[in-house]
Amino acid sequence: MSETRNTNKEQKKPPLNGRRAIPLNNSNDEENEVPEMEAFGLIPRGFNPTDYLRVVDINMFKEPHEINKQQHHTDKYYSPKLIVRRGQSFQVQVDFNRPYKPETDRFWLEYLIGRYPQQNKGTYIPVLVGDVLKPGEWGAKITHKENNSVRLSIMSSATCIVGKFRLYVAVWTPFGILRTHRNSATDTYILFNPWCQQDAVYLDDEKEREEYVLNDVGIVFHGNINDIKLRSWSYGQFEENILDACLFLMDKAELELSGRGNPIKICRVASAVINSRDDNGVIAGSWDNTYTYGVAPSAWTGSVDILLEYYSSKQPVRYGQCWVFAGVFNTFLRCLGIPARLVTNYSSAHDNNANLQLDFFLDDEGKVDTKLTKDSVWNYHCWNEAWMTRPDLPVGFGGWQVVDGTPQETSDGMYRCGPASVQAIKHGHVCFQFDAPFVYAEVNSDIVYSRRDKNGTQVIERIDTTHIGQLIVTKKVGDDGMMEITEEYKFQEGSEEERLALETAVMYGVKKQTTQDTMYQPQTDVEMEFQAQKAVLGSDFKVTITFRNKSHNYYTATTYLSGNIVFYTGVTKNEFKKHSFKAKLEPSSSSSFDVVIKSSEYLSDLLDQASFHFFVTARINETGKILATQKATVLEIPTLRIKTQGEMVAGKEMSVTVEFTNPLKQTLENVTFRLEGPGVLRTMKKEF
This protein's superkingdom (predicted)? Predict the structure, then answer.
């Protein structure tokens, strides 16, 4: 009998957890019950709370034109609540039921976040009223008393958690603490502060802060190195509900609230949650040109629709490619107050085994063997840079950090990338976290063309050391021009410093295969060049192959041109042009050969970005040596012209005309048109 009683007792006990006393606190959305009366012991019968100081009202000065949002550069957020930046003082007024008497009355403020607030985790913050405010530390002081009101200046910590806090005012009485009841109107959002010197994201140039934190539109550069194209992107970080959607992303990523004051942690988890691989994140990527049940990546005009759809449906939004991931990531960073910019790398290597070389395998005819070749060169790839200090690295590696939300390779078991210090990448110090070797390879790999000989040895035909990472750009500060930042990532090609940085990277564990173990003796006395004429969608164009024979010998070259329609990621969809010819190369002279590409050859298979990729391989018959080169080219797509009519005055109607010339010899059907203007116009969709 006694035994059964025992087991009953044991069942009632909560299960033991040897690790933590309280559950994980990783949701900004969840709340706990806060007692309005917290008694110190037995309450005497005559106790009447109304005899003591009581809070009647709290004024947050939260309108866009009022002091807080003006001083904190948060007046653009479309939100009725108070939004302030950390490490900078803000004003609050408390109205009591009678004048406040500092001799006998005691009150303080309490900021709480999440479901399990704890003082040592920074999720429960009692703010006491004192005489001085210390910069960058929590505190409050009275700046003004009038009738029953007290005006407070409140300072938040420069390392404070970023998110939405609940505010309570607590009053001390001899028998217990009286608190204001839960009032969501006094909720306070605290964001990163690039204007505050003690903040990890401090940026000292006002023009840069206006661009990288406050600008809600931007430019994405795409196309390819010889034909740079641009599209506008609406970041919309201040639009209604976007701030809540961004905080929800951190909840979705299950980032512990106590880690949300650290921009390094926030960037790392966000780079994983921006893509839907392995965590049901924001955007599902698709690179195969079939976008059933979703929006084609090139149809999006901005981040707002994507974030709001995800916030309400909690399901990945379809579909994105690199600039969409980067555009949404940029919105997220700027919205939270982390300075950020979108960067494009032309001829970006996707090196799937991080050995700093892209291996292109040729077959007997000198064509690329698509089964063996796993690495690819993207015409361009977009990622983001976020600005922050890196106290986790040695001095000198703070500043711009690469973060990339496009799912390419896994990092610590998840599809994410960064933050990786741009400075560390430039100098080859790729031992510093996170993912520096992968980014280093994206901007610095060599392309190695090789083929198997009859006896099975690997013969290297050509090594191209300058094709990858030819140009890295971002939008200029203050206008829509292009700013080259290649020098931030790498030294001049061929310079002594560049070789040193490469050797450093290899020393720090970036595998670089040596070419000694394979035969490599290139044909040095003949050069081959390939040029493609600029072409408009729907028209014919020509490509030119030029040989320079610098020797005194007469050579013949069997030449093969392969034209492929490719995704901008460099992955081939199909070959639309095969052309072989024999070239006679006279001694010490140049010869050029033109090949015409007809529109009928490519139109049926075009993809949404109209990219081509040409391989040219030539065998010098007299020596058996191979020359190889490759080039990407993009068709001119007709531009949209936007004209406005009527006065551009706030509150007045105006009309917008969009013009477009159809370059094809056929009628267009099912044309969809999207227009958006942050702060002016929610996205419009029209079918024609």
Answer: Eukaryota
Q: What are the Cα distances from residue 530, in Å, to 493, 546, 556, 559, 622?
A: 21, 6, 18, 12, 22
| Beta partners for residue 110, in sequence order | 126, 168
Which of these is catalytic: 72, 222, 350, 381?
A: 381
Residues 613 and 577: their CA atoms lie apart, in Å, by 11
431 in active site? no
Question: Per CATH, is 37-191 categorized as 3.50.50.60?
Answer: no
pTM for this predicted structure = 0.81
Backbone angles phi, psi at 122, to 5 degrees: 80, 15
Residue 529 assigned as binding residue: no
Q: Are the beta carbons of 470 and 346 closer than 8 angstroms?
A: yes
Q: How far apart are CA 247 and CA 258, in angstroms?
A: 14
Is 498 marked as a binding-site residue?
yes
pLDDT 10s digits, 169-219? 999 998 899 999 999 999 999 999 999 999 999 998 999 999 999 999 999
Q: What is the DSSP string of 222-243?
A: EEETTEEEEEEEE--TTSTTHH
**Statement: residue 9 has pLDDT above 50:** no
More confident residue, 302 or 361: 302
- Burial of 557 (C-beta count, 10 Å sphere; 0-12/13-18/19+): buried
CA distance 235 to 326: 10
120 among annotated binding-site residues = no
Looking at residue 650, its pLDDT comes to 73
Q: How many residues does the chain have?
A: 688
Q: Tokens for 664, please give them.
A: 């094809």
SS3 label, residue 34? coil
Q: What is the pLDDT of residues 269-308, one digit of tens each?
A: 999 999 998 789 999 998 888 888 899 999 999 999 999 9
- CATH topology agreement for domains 37-191 and 209-508: no
According to the model, what pLDDT value does residue 389 have?
93
Q: To 10 degrees, what angle do helices 496-507 and 436-444 make?
A: 140
Architecture of the domain defined by 522-634:
Sandwich (2.60)
Catalytic residue among 216, 404, 417, 435: 404
CA-based nearest residue to 57, from 176, 155, 152, 149: 149
Q: Which CATH superfamily is domain 209-508 in?
A: Transglutaminase-like (3.90.260.10)
Q: Where are the domains of the chain?
A: 37-191, 209-508, 522-634, 641-687
Give strand pairing partners of 141: 130, 153
| Least confidently predicted of 426-440, 480-494, 580-594 | 426-440
446 is in an annotated binding site: yes
Active-site annotation holds for 381:
yes
Distance of CA 405 to the CA centre of its chain: 5
Provide the pLDDT for residue 152.
98
| Catalytic position from the list 246, 267, 322, 417 | 322
Instruction: Using the Cα atoms of residue 413, residue 414, residue 420 and residue 426 in order, give the sign of their dihedral.
Output: positive
Let me know if 246 is a catalytic residue.
no
Strands 139-146 and 107-112: unpaired
- Tell me the three state secondary structure of residue 281: coil
* HEC letters along 105-144: CCEEEEEECCCCCCHHHCCEEEEEEECCCCCCCCEEEEEE
CB 61 within 8 A of CB 80: no
